Amino acid sequence: MEIIKKPILTEKASLLTEKLNRYAFKVDHRANKIQIKLAIEEMFGITVVAVNTAVVAGKAKSRHTKAGFVSGRAPKYKKAIITVKDGETIDFYTTL
């Protein structure tokens, strides 16, 4: 099971990084906080202070096509917010 899927690189996530030394990741929905912490520490070689998780509900999507009105949902996913020890950082562009 691949626990860490990809980092979340949005404006809101970058504000967390700048102000609070926190990073956001999309993770496997079956992973718990302990597994996420161990995977981050192993992948980036840093000390994780805290892990907060949330299941993000998928948005309802709809569009008009030649065939008519099509509606569906974007998939839900689990998000992990990682708090890193003061003085340590993760550089996504050189490590991944």
TrEMBL record:
<dbReference type="GO" id="GO:0006412">
    <property type="term" value="P:translation"/>
</dbReference>
<keyword id="KW-0699">rRNA-binding</keyword>
<dbReference type="InterPro" id="IPR012677">
    <property type="entry name" value="Nucleotide-bd_a/b_plait_sf"/>
</dbReference>
<dbReference type="GO" id="GO:0005840">
    <property type="term" value="C:ribosome"/>
</dbReference>
<protein>
    <recommendedName>
        <fullName>Large ribosomal subunit protein uL23</fullName>
    </recommendedName>
</protein>
<dbReference type="GO" id="GO:1990904">
    <property type="term" value="C:ribonucleoprotein complex"/>
</dbReference>
<keyword id="KW-0687">Ribonucleoprotein</keyword>
<comment type="subunit">
    <text>Part of the 50S ribosomal subunit. Contacts protein L29, and trigger factor when it is bound to the ribosome.</text>
</comment>
<dbReference type="GO" id="GO:0003735">
    <property type="term" value="F:structural constituent of ribosome"/>
</dbReference>
<dbReference type="GO" id="GO:0019843">
    <property type="term" value="F:rRNA binding"/>
</dbReference>
<dbReference type="Pfam" id="PF00276">
    <property type="entry name" value="Ribosomal_L23"/>
</dbReference>
<keyword id="KW-0689">Ribosomal protein</keyword>
<keyword id="KW-0694">RNA-binding</keyword>
<comment type="similarity">
    <text>Belongs to the universal ribosomal protein uL23 family.</text>
</comment>
<dbReference type="InterPro" id="IPR012678">
    <property type="entry name" value="Ribosomal_uL23/eL15/eS24_sf"/>
</dbReference>
<comment type="function">
    <text>One of the early assembly proteins it binds 23S rRNA. One of the proteins that surrounds the polypeptide exit tunnel on the outside of the ribosome. Forms the main docking site for trigger factor binding to the ribosome.</text>
</comment>
<dbReference type="InterPro" id="IPR013025">
    <property type="entry name" value="Ribosomal_uL23-like"/>
</dbReference>
